[in-house]
Structure formats: C-alpha cells, structure tokens
Here is the input.
Amino acid sequence: MNEKRSEFEDPPGHGRPPHPWEEVPPEQWNDWRWQLTHRLNTVEELAQVIRLTPEEVAALSAPDHFRVDITPYFASLMDPDNPACPIRRQVIPTLQELLPFQAEMVDSLAEEAQSPVHGLVHRYPDRVLMLVTTQCASYCRYCTRSRIVGDPHAQFSQADYERQLAYIAANPQVRDVLLSGGDPLILSQRVLERLLRRLRDIPHVEIIRIGTRVPVFLPQRITEDLVNMLRQFHPLWINVHFTHPKEITPEVEVALARLADAGIPLGSQTVLLAGINDCPNVMLALVRQLVKNRVRPYYIYQCDLVHGAGHFRTPVAKGIEIIEFLRGHTSGLAVPTFVIDAPGGGGKVPIEPNYLLSMSDSRVVVRNYAGFISAYVQPTDYKPHDQTRCPYCHTRRDEGSQEGLAGLLSGRRLTIAPEGWGVKGSTEGTEKMVEVEGVEGEGVSAGRPVLLGHPLEELHRMSEEVVR
Here is the structure.
C-alpha cells in the first residue's frame, strides 16, 4: 500500500507508478487509455490500494449502489489508512449513501421537465445544457445526475445529438451551449470534434462551454492532440470540477497549463461537501491553488437534494461562512459565487453575505469584510438612462416569460403573480407575468407556465418524491 502521507503534504508527482502499480511501465501509466481500462471497482481491487473499512466493504458489496470506477491515478492519491481522506470519500461508497433522506428527489433540478428534446435542458433565456454522455472517468458519490450517469443503457445516441443540434439551430436566442453529461472529455475525440464543429456551424452560437472532471480524475487525457483539436473552436471555455486542494497534483498542473496555453479560459466549480471541504481554510487553499494555475473559481454549489448525497450536505450557513472568510482575505478574482441550484428547476440562486446594511434617498450604508461601516453618498443630479434612445435597448431580444425580475425593473411588466391570483377561491397555480399596458413587449397568456415552469402542486409532488 501507499505510504501514509501527512494531511498537509503536497500531492505527489510520481516519477514512477506508485504501489501497487510499480511494475507498470511509465508509458502505460501515463496513457489515459490504460488508466480507463484499469479502473478499480471491486472490493478485491481496492483492497490492494487502501485498507477498506467494514462499512466501505458493505457499501461496495451492496447490489444497488451507484456505479464505482476509479482511475489508478486518482486511487493513488487516497490515504490508505484514513477513511476520512477527502480524496477517498469522493469516490469510495459508504452505507450512508444508500439511506434516503428527507426532501431528496430523483431529479432535484427538474432537468427532465425542462428538456424540449432528450438530453437538452433549456432553463435560461440564451443558453442550453447539452448532455452528450452518461459516462465519466471516475464517479463522484454525490453526483447530481446519478439517475442516469454511469448507466451504459442510458447513453445518448447520434439520433439524440441530431435532435439536440436541430433544436439549437431552430432557436436563435441560444448563444451559449454547455456540454456536460457525464463527462464530454470521455467521448472519443472524433465524436467530440464532430459535435463541436456542428455547434460552430450554427451562426447564433457564440460560446461553447465544457464541464468536466477529466483534468482531475484523468489528467493524462489532456494530450497535445486533444488540446490542438479543442483550440479550433474558440471561443471555447472549460469549467473543471475541483473539490479539494489535494487534487491539484503536478500532473493536474501540466494538464491545466496545456489548456490555458491553448487560450482556453478555465473556471472551477466546487460542490460544498461535509467532511471534505466544509472548512474555510480548505477552500482558501483551494482557490489560491486554482488561480495560481490560471483557473478562475466560478461557483461553490450547495449540495443538491439527490439520492446518495444526504450525508454530504451542510447547512447553507456554512457556505455563507466560507464566502465571508474568502472575501477580503484573498483577491476578488479568487472568490467564487456561492449558489443554491434551486430545487424544481429554478436555476442557480446566488447566496451571499449581506454587505448592504441600510439606505436612504441620499446615502447607502455598507460594511466591508472586516466589519468597517461606511456611508456612500448618492448623487443628486443623476439623469436616468433613456431606453428610448439606446440602440442596445432597441435591439434586445424579447425573453417573454423568462424575463423575470428584469421585466419589472425595466417597466415592461407590472407583476409576477401565481395564476389565478385575485380570483375568488383560487390560491394556487402557475406563476404568470402581466404586461404593463402601453409598454413594448409580449404579454403572457393565462395558463402558460413561466419562470419555474411548474404548477405549485407539481413542485410539491417533486419535493416529496423519494428514491425507493
């Protein structure tokens, strides 16, 4: 087994394969195909790397556990003697993940309900999520899409891709496409290149993004050949899912440098996980390591209400505490946005400490990270922006029912109210928007789902749906 490492020791950069892979030639160890075909998933295989606890053995032996596959590279980072190792807890199941918890859902983000075609989620006005595979290099125990991820029978087909692409081409408001899954960088390079090329051929698609954990689980996959292919499709952004500073090894740093050197902007998304990164100092170390490697911390997610993740959930207050600890104590560039992905398909809701303490018509009272309180004097001669003379306002695309609060602030809408609001005997329904008379923009007919897109009774039903 690996020698036990200190909690604060930097992750190793192996000059040769570690135990129990000492006899593997380095050229094989550094080959991503070898890593994928030698993933560990059984009690017998994992017992060669770590000292499994009885609970881990029982969870690995349970017939209905979520898929386990761990690349040898990532397995080599686990502490063999510490079941609380932050690397180990991400990928080794425990009995806790088999227990349902209150409020869990099969599809907590209502992605299926917001999919106009199979595998494509259209939640926001100008962007879509395109699911292109259900497979990953390794599988996180807190996976949001565990309902489909890891299931080879739930794979997306070429026919699915064609329907997704046709929908995007037919909706000119879509300017931003996020490829996810599963992990898009697990696709064959030929398939991925074809998808990127087809998206680039759609004139109104301005930005393509890829969400991935491959640089973390399988940094060997970030080859010069792959990077040279990706750089053809700028502007292309990649968000890498990092969870703990121990993941940022020398191998990962090489992979990130290749991507950044190719002009690909890199972001990081981190799920807040109890016992793994629910410590302000751990998060501070992580974000500092990220920006040093040209990765912009983007989001910290509150853990979703998904089956198997109950024991990873923290109070929302923990995320607020972490942001409070980061803001002002490191550069703003390194401070991500803490969000709750609202159950029921509400999308990402930013949750921040309150820095605005009070205001009057002449002053705004604010406080900084250290508790310093100050008053900012507001202008007395400000002339409001004239929308009627602004070419950008004139050419802005009408977002209809997805305009939300922006419609209220612009004056194009007067209210956002549940359908049937003010009608005697009607207290529940679907949210609707009411057009302001004489203000340019389409109204929304009664009965048309808007915003969350679900009747309240449907949201209640989803919130009670538990994996059996």
